[in-house]
Design goal:
alpha/beta; 386 residues; 7-stranded mixed β-sheet; Aspartate Aminotransferase, domain 1; globular; 11 strands; 39% helix
């Protein structure tokens, strides 16, 4: 059975009503037939649900479907992508530990690493994604985890997952991959040696900009540690959001095929535009890591980046000139979204930090939606002309 078929057919057991679509379990707690059944549930002697902060059938169905897509043994769903990242970090890192992270990461992840982990005595080192030959030398005796995004947000740089998987196994450290941009449709990091994979389900998994959610999947023993930490600290995914996300996964492959095919058409059409200094998309042959992209990804995803001549001022003028594309703090929507990372998602980084990871003042990130690619391209071109 193919992963997408398994994901679609994975569901909670039918009730006596024999419904075809999974019901929504909108409850905070669960009841028992006897005191002994309740005792056994709290003693973890059975799989009975106790409290929705711990587990819930709607949340479990969503989690199980992501596991099917990623080829994971187990998973735990959270209220947002950032709570999944935070929960993963704090489940395995303690005072005196060292985190090695790819330097090209989401702005909030950067803030979590640089501003908050240090409060618990956790140190970090950033690795240049474009200099992987230096990574081994950055691993310290107390390094416990290597965290990375591929493709990165927003620069669309890539890491060879097979290579980094072998490196972390040799060094005996955990490999955690944020797979949000690729989705499990295009890339499954666990196949290449990752221990845990994280998603902001808010993005492509929902696909319509409706709800927040996050999920971490991987080996069952590691997920058990995440579960214990998160059931205590409480970043639970709501049953309603889980129900929405679970239904969305049924169309994820169809949607991602359309997002990726449109993104490639748009990136190809924009290459060589006189007002653009560069265009970046993983499946463009001009991408510096094109060979890595086609090796480990089945498509290039739905994000296209380009750099405007004229820097910060040109970036803002471009956004103001758009007619159809949305300006919003999200990506992975059915509607195409344009953003200017230097002044929004990565504004809290210093200029030097932004430049170090390829976020120039004129960089524009396009999250390609499901509209006709010709219409998306027409709006981008008129805004460039304006």
């Amino acid at each position: 059975m193919q992963p997408i078929t398994k994901a679609i057919r994975t569901r909670v057991p039918q009730t006596d009503e024999m419904e075809h679509s999974s019901p929504l379990f909108l409850t905070s707690s669960f009841t028992y037939d006897s005191a002994e059944d309740m005792r056994a549930a709290f003693a973890d002697e059975n799989d009975a649900n106790i409290y929705t902060r711990f587990s819930n059938p709607s949340v479990q169905e969503f989690t199980d479907r992501v596991c099917a897509l990623e080829g994971a043994e187990a998973g735990f769903a959270t209220a947002s992508g950032m709570s999944a990242i935070f929960g993963t970090f704090l489940s395995f890192l303690k005072t005196g530990d060292h985190l090695l992270s790819c330097s090209s990461i989401f702005g909030s992840t950067h803030s979590l690493i640089t501003k908050y982990l240090s409060r618990w005595g956790i140190t970090y080192t950033y690795a240049d994604i474009n200099q992987p030959d230096t990574w081994a030398s950055l691993i310290q005796p107390n390094t416990k985890m290597l965290f990375l995004e591929t493709p990165t947000n927003p620069g669309l740089d890539l890491v060879d997952l097979e290579w980094v998987g072998k490196l972390t196994k040799e060094k005996g450290i955990l490999l955690v991959v944020d797979n949000c941009f690729a989705t499990p449709i295009a890339q499954q990091p666990l196949r290449y040696g990752a221990d845990l994979v994280i998603h902001s389900a808010t993005k492509w998994m929902d696909g319509q900009g409706r709800v927040l959610g996050g999920v971490v999947v991987g080996r069952s023993d590691l997920i058990h540690d995440v579960y214990l930490f998160c059931r205590t600290t409480g970043p639970a995914l709501s049953p309603f959001n889980a129900w929405v996300l679970s239904k969305s996964l049924e169309t994820l492959e169809v949607r991602m095929d359309r997002h990726a095919s449109s993104a490639l058409k748009i990136a190809t059409a924009l290459e060589g535009h006189p007002r653009l200094l560069s265009v970046k998309y993983p499946f463009l042959k001009s991408h510096p890591q094109y060979d890595i992209a086609v090796k480990q990804m089945s498509n290039g995803g739905g994000i296209v980046c380009f750099e405007l001549a004229g820097g910060l001022d040109a970036g803002r003028k471009f956004l103001d000139a758009l007619d159809m594309l949305s300006l919003t703090a999200n990506l992975g929507d059915s509607r195409t979204i344009a953003s200017h990372p230097a002044s929004t998602t990565h504004a809290k980084l210093s200029e030097a930090e932004r430049l170090a990871v390829g976020i120039t003042p004129g960089l524009i990130r396009i999250s390609v939606g499901l509209e006709a690619p010709e219409d998306i391209l027409a709006d981008i071109r008129q805004a460039l002309d304006a």
